[in-house]
Design goal:
The protein has 378 residues and is an alpha+beta fold. The protein contains 21 helices and ten strands. Among the domains are: 5-56; 112-219, no CATH class; 292-378, no CATH class. A hairpin with a 2-residue loop joins β5 (197-204) and β6.
Length: 378
């Protein structure tokens, strides 16, 4: 894009600039060729006019804006809360590019929430229990059984499989939660197999069965219950005036609303939950509003919830142009463990870790550079 100089300075001034520029260029060339004395003040003035013209004709480079995905969670999706959110955006100079509603039925059918919480949901609903990467030694050390035997006997289920198989006992609301809560590492009926990866032993009719991440089913149900919905916003803001860290810390607020600044969204909604139409107080899980933790996470959430193509997204396009393969971007959208670049490894003390963690709270340019570095390291 080029600025139209004539529209700003008028035809006569443009002609004068051009004449001055031509005279200046000619005089400077003669002066240099003849090794003459320094040019006069008049010539310097003409040179300044020429340079001003060149400045006006420079291409306009669009600001690299931070773009995030934000939504009011089902428990807080009330008209009053939405007004609070939009008022906060306006006050902080945050522009809403797009907004809409996704129903609980859609979330359930299309698995939006499963992808959103992929690291947890993968073990709870997406991958069959028998196919999960269970550490056999840890499993036997806790439960006293061989994992291979459990699989062969058909006693391993993800949480959704378990709930469906024993619907008569665990189909009712809260039934599976109570059974899961009754397991514990102290009783050797639960073991942590990895980050966000838990296995619990639940006995049914005298037979010991094993299920994974059953706590996710309650979380999932809050998003998928018929009649519920989220209200989402795609927003952008200038990192020069609002950093991503402040967007999350001051605009959104920490995960637990009791720790949130009074003026943050989570702080305001938690304090006024009754007047805003919520049915219960906020807490660390029901914390009213979600927002992306980085430009990359925002991209991952837009491609999930809005079915946006990577190349059609501003940050996605930038990643592709910077040489990060589309296959890598898709893989990273599920927050896998990745090999860190040297700088990230030194800063975190880890050679490998979560891609989302490595990019958290970074603004556009730094996030893009970090993505490129980690992509090359991997």
């Amino acid at each position: 894009m080029w600025r139209r100089a004539a529209g700003r300075i008028g035809q006569h001034r443009l002609a004068a600039f051009a004449a001055a520029g031509a005279a200046t260029a000619s005089a400077l060339a003669v002066n240099a060729h003849c090794n003459a004395e320094p040019v006069s003040a008049t010539l310097v003035a003409k040179k300044g006019a020429y340079e001003e013209l060149l400045g006006l004709l420079q291409p306009v480079v669009p600001a690299k804006m931070n773009t995030a995905f934000v939504f009011a969670k089902p428990h807080a999706n009330t008209p009053a809360v939405l007004e609070v959110i939009k008022a906060k955006f306006a006050a902080m100079g945050i522009t809403v590019l797009k907004e809409g509603v996704v129903t609980g039925e859609e979330i359930d059918k299309k698995g939006f929430i499963d992808q959103h919480y992929y690291a947890i949901a993968e073990k709870s609903t997406l991958t069959s229990g028998k196919d999960l990467p269970v550490n056999a030694d840890k499993f036997k050390g806790t439960f006293g059984e061989d994992w291979a035997t459990v699989v062969a006997e058909g006693r391993a289920f993800n949480a959704l499989e378990f709930k469906n198989k024993f619907a008569d006992k665990f189909g009712a609301e809260g039934a599976l939660d109570r059974a899961w809560d009754a397991t514990s590492d102290k009783k050797k009926t639960r073991v942590k197999l990895g980050g966000g990866f838990y296995c619990g032993q639940i006995e049914v009719d005298g037979v010991k069965y094993y299920t994974f991440n059953a706590f996710f089913m309650t979380m999932r149900g809050k998003f998928t219950t018929p009649g519920t919905s989220i209200h989402y916003y795609v927003v952008e803001f200038d990192p020069a005036t609002l950093s991503w860290a402040d967007f999350r810390g001051q605009v959104l607020g920490p995960t637990d609303p009791k720790d949130a600044p009074a003026g943050s969204l989570r702080g305001v909604i938690a304090a006024g939950w009754q007047a805003l139409g919520l049915k219960a107080p906020c807490n660390g899980g029901d914390n009213a509003v979600h927002a992306s933790a980085s430009p990359f996470e925002g991209l991952a959430e837009r491609t999930n919830w809005l079915a946006c193509a990577i190349g059609d997204d501003s940050f996605g396009k930038a990643l592709l142009e910077a040489g990060v393969p589309e296959t890598t971007i898709k893989k990273w959208s599920s927050d896998p463990q990745v090999v860190y670049d040297a700088a990230t490894a030194a800063a975190t003390g880890k050679a490998k870790g979560s891609i989302f963690d490595a990019l958290e709270d970074l603004d556009y340019d730094e996030c893009l550079a970090k993505c490129v570095a980690i992509s090359k390291a991997s």
